[in-house]
Amino acid sequence: MKVGHTNDATLLLHAIHKILLKEWDPLGIRSIPSMCDEYEDYLPKIFNLICDNADESEIFEYLWRIENKVMEKRGNRQHTLRIASLLKELQLKK
Question: 58, 68, 73, 78: which one has the fewest Cβ atoms less than 10 Å from its Cβ?
Fold first, then answer.
């Protein structure tokens, strides 16, 4: 996937952030407005995975590592697979 226009990149970043906060949300913070930026550190890597046309398993592995190693949460594999699929679908929309 090639994001050639700044507006395209902004829209993609917004879409990723929305999925992370509203769908993925391993910390359960989606309803706390003051924490809406909690997952922003992960946007650049996911953005690059999508732009580089990474496969779903690569996206899954990145999210799974964050959940289990970085956040030290016990991840739900099926849920994280679904989120990886949603993020992968963003490649098709560009």
Answer: 78
Spell 37-62 as b/e; 16+ CB within 10 A means b. Answer: ebbeebbeebbebbbeebebeebbeb
Domain coverage including residue 13: 6-92
pTM of the model: 0.88
**Half-sphere exposure of residue 64: CA atoms within 13 angstroms, side-chain side:** 14
Q: pLDDT for 48-69, tens place per residue?
A: 999 999 999 999 999 999 999 9
55 touches 92 (CB < 8 A)? no
Residue 90: Cβ within 10 Å count = 19
